[in-house]
Amino acid sequence: xxxxxxxxxxxxxxxxxxxxxxxxxxxxxxxxxxxxxxxxxxxxxxxxxxxxxxxxxxxxxxxxxxxxxxxxxxxxxxxxxxxxxxxxxxxxxxxxxx
Amino acid sequence: xxxxxxxxxxxxxxxxxxxxxxxxxxxxxxxxxxxxxxxxxxxxxxxxxxxxxxxxxxxxxxxxxxxxxxxxxxxxxxxxxxxxxxxxxxxxxxxxxxxxxxxxxxxxxxxxxxxxxxxxxxxxxxxxxxxxxxxxxxxxxxxxxxxxxxxxxxxxxxxxxxxxxxxxxxxxxxxxxxxxxxxxxxxxxxxxxxxxxxxxxxxxxxxxxxxxxxxxxxxxxxxxxxxxxxxxxxxxxxxxxxxxxxxxxxxxxxxxxxxxxxxxxxxxxxxxxxxxxxxxxxxxxxxxxxxxxxxxxxxxxxxxxxxxxxxxxxxxxxxxxxxxxxxxxxxxxxxxxxxxxxxxxxxxxxxxxxxxxxxxxxxxxxxxxxxxxxxxxxxxxxxxxxxxxxxxxxxxxxxxxxxxxxxxxxxxxxxxxxxxxxxxxxxxxxxxxxxxxxxxxxxxxxxxxxxxxxxxxxxxxxxxxxxxxxxxxxxxxxxxxxxxxxxxxxxxxxxxxxxxxxxxxxxxxxxxxxxxxxxxxxxxxxxxxxxxxxxxxxxxxxxxxxxxxxxxxxxxxxxxxxxxxxxxxxxxxxxxxxxxxxxxxxxxxxxxxxxxxxxxxxxxxxxxxxxxxxxxxxxxxxxxxxxxxxxxxxxxxxxxxxxxxxxxxxxxxxxxxxxxxxxxxxxxxxxxxxxxxxxxxxxxxxxxxxxxxxxxxxxxxxxxxxxxxxxxxxxxxxxxxxxxxxxxxxxxxxxxxxxxxxxxxxxxxxxxxxxxxxxxxxxxxxxxxxxxxxxxxxxxxxxxxxxxxxxxxxxxxxxxxxxxxxxxxxxxxxxxxxxxxxxxxxxxxxxxxxxxxxxxxxxxxxxxxxxxxxxxxxxxxxxxxxxxxxxxxxxxxxxxxxxxxxxxxxxxxxxxxxxxxxxxxxxxxxxxxxxxxxxxxxxxxxxxxxxxxxxxxxxxxxxxxxxxxxxxxxxxxxxxxxxxxxxxxxxxxxxxxxxxxxxxxxxxxxxxxxxxx
Lengths: 98, 997
Prior knowledge:
heterodimer, A: about 100 residues, mainly beta, Folate-binding fold, 6 strands, about 10% helix, globular, B: about 1000 residues, Ubiquitin-like (UB roll), FAD/NAD(P)-binding domain, 7-stranded mixed β-sheet, 52 strands, about 30% strand
């Protein structure tokens, strides 16, 4: 079982308290009704599914109930960092060699 | 009476404390502290089981957890018959009853042993190749027969009466393994004051100190030192010492699963004791001190009872005081077996000969053995063991061929070297590295905060082990925040150190031979099988493993994996590391389902949710159905009524008079705040800004892709307050969906969402008399049709308690839904029931609710929709705000496929024969005469007998359904094709006049 740090509660809590909510940093277009079919497809259906570092949303559903963002390595399952919803995608990751 | 193979003066058990037990019905006597294995051996019993595939007689290979052969069934009573218990780890208790497995009619005479004679047929891959066709026969014929023949004990037929405990624990340093290394590491860590947990699978700590006769630490005998150290650790407040506790799984972030066997060793454990306790430990640092496992020699008939690991014989002698034979042969490629021979010789057992594959090894123990007058043969091999139910001889030959000599023996001790136990390290996702010099895999790259010490790290010798472990324990504690320790490192005065050994088949069992030289005893895999797998094209060790099943038995190949790998590598002509090692998986040793399940069974398996009126419904004869976690009243049968009769009566009465229905399980969410209406506009398809306070609207919620996600009636209680209802099953996900958008996409909106499902009990009062039923109880609300029309909501009081009173209907009749605080739910229901009875109203359940709503064509999301249905498909276009510029799903609705013609649309169906009720889920075709497979154009989503209509009714999703009104379609069923007519979805009161009273 993983330990995940909730950036709102500011502590590590067991995975059971959380729920994954898909890829992060995919903003809903402000004028969504005017989106082209291709753009809507990219927004709604296409996801990165990388091997390695992924940016994703989690919800501390059985805790503070807040949605937040996390950086996780899909190979090791290790959480690199977590940060609050609305904060920009981190440009540099802690401990990153590249 | 002392058992004949118990040697007085040897071992550590007190002879005075006897325990009687039985094996296959025969009574025996053992001593407290024995394992079942040592007690049987003390009585001269070696034959304890039959092998899995060939039914060959088997005895004890080991004295520990790696045991592949000696699996027995332990029977306490009718419900407690544990199969596949390793006799080498089962502690003896007075009255223990054990029976052998996989034999018929008896252990000594087993009919299944014919498999052994026919073994040329049963080579690797036999089942895959032989039982391929006919296809149906595998499931119905072959598999059941093969399973019966290849028995692994018998499962008890009764539910497990034992209970299992579970605990979470946190510590800075977790030490796995309580031998010299583990104890030294735990001492070092404990002295720093951090929290330490030390776990060992055995009843007694000490590990290999149990058999190492010459070890001396801090001036004491090694085993005595271990007991003293454990006593010291137990006395420390920051240390938890767990014996009989196996670390079976190493998971992410130093999360380790331990299972503690609490009472399997007790004669009559009280009910207050759990059978096992699952520990889930989160550790700052983990010290892995799991030791090494001795390997057997791979030669012909190396599985005969009496042929065992040298260290096992030494353990039986030095710890349990048991000689495994009177005339013992030794076959080795390693020094450690000499120590076993020396100990046995000194205890008065004749050592017939030591056969050593090596040419001219030198080592003090060899000199010592020679000095004791033991015959030693270098450069020779044991090419076969004689005997059947017990080994009777060993045939010795120069290793490169030559004259054979047969030596009578009653036991053979073997050792081909030691395999570091890297299981837990590997489970931690660390990568092992092959040491070409010592021919073993040792921990290489670490993936977690752990360290391996001692034999499992490839460290040889007691002195080096204790040094390494003590330093690692201190460092782990320091890294996890401990202070500097003030204790002294244990001083090793004498200890053993073993050299290498060999891997793979011994001479006489190598390439070109077909003898039964077992690699994996539990799965009956021989050296020949591995070679055959390679010949048949299995070039990856993972394929070899699956084809031969080598290492796939419950012992997980603890003794066999390295041999199997070496034989495959030799056959492939590749070095061992290039062939690779198979993955180590949890559990390290078998774990009971009980310990994993813990308390989560029966009523505690899953939560049950009951509404406020549950007790009333139960006492009025309701039959309940499960809807998610909820128990809902399904129908209320009266004396003599079956479900149909009850539902028919309930349906007719509601339309004629009225009925009461508990709708409390519907999800309820309060949407509150200055921007509540704006939020509702974005989350639902309907327009909300202009909905007046006190009015209700049927809302549809879409996903962004345009498909219906949920629906429900929403009441506006105030300009900034909406009372939203959802489907019963959808409540949590709708709340999640709303929170998601509010928190992440529309955080600028000032809105609060609160789940109020369990705060309000909801009693639906439906039917022409509904107003008359509630009228005497309602205070402060004008409930006339004029003041409170259909789809309105008022706040006031009923029976003196607060209510949110909705005028709404899921039946098509005039109806109210009375919301009251849940604590008053039952009392208000009773008051309404008393009023209802004056009019002849009924209590009705979910089945009647379903029929009544279907008669009106009201959909149920999740039944009439399936995640691919749009509002237009469901005939609900009217509920989508045409002037709106944004809501979740607005763009999805205009996707090309969603506006395409001939989508499946929801329609009504009437069977041509009104008495026939369609099956929900049945497929619909346009032409019943077309060849199979027919083109299906839709399916039935809801279907009921409608007593009100005097016929069956159904709803269905049909391609281009609304253009098919009046058409005849067909529902092919196994008993014939049913003709149906496509109709509208409303079967009762099409104009809706009854809604308004």
